[in-house]
Amino acid sequence: MELKEMKSKFIRQAVTSPVTKQAHALAQTPPQTTLTAFFCLCQEDDFARSLLYIEIPTYYTWSKQKQWVRRKQGRIIPGHDIKASNAISRAYIVHPNNSFYLRLLLHTVRGPTSFEDLRTFQGVLCSTYHEVCASHGLLKDDEHWQKTLQETSVSRVASQIRQLFAIMLTACEIEATIFAVGEIQTRYVQRLSSSNPTAK
Questions:
Q1: How many Å apart are CA 11 and CA 180, to the nearest integer?
Q2: Between residues 127 and 164, the one the model is more confident about
Q3: Spatial CB neighbours of 112, under 8 Å, sequence gap ≥ 6
């Protein structure tokens, strides 16, 4: 069999394989996540448009149909046909890359209807989440890095905190003054050196 014919046969098999078809189908219609469902909710629900992503579980529950639905039990919110609970929501800690800036926006922007909407500031679509964070004034100083370390120090073991700290120093644009040695020793030295995950 000639090389050209073998190559054509391989391509035909790859394109028609069940795995390839499944991957193509997922790419065309990606599965619904709590975040994308939040975007859909904000397109249809006026009250949801007043909320941050992390506030949604207080007023809505995640259904088996992968949708946010209004809670049926809880205290009534005056002026709204909606109920609230004491549900605790959690935004997962991520490494300081584009996902970090996405997370920062989700803690700041109320009622976004899509990823594009989240990247839009005063009618201008920004190319990256970092850019739109800067437009919102969220990156005027390095306080967000301090908040990242503070949050991580109470929920991760020492090796993970050290890894995050190393990434922040080597891969992120951080002012050296915010991480003065004395300040690091005062705030995080015990957590950076401890092997006990519950150490404070």
A1: 57
A2: 127
A3: 38, 39, 42, 105, 106, 118
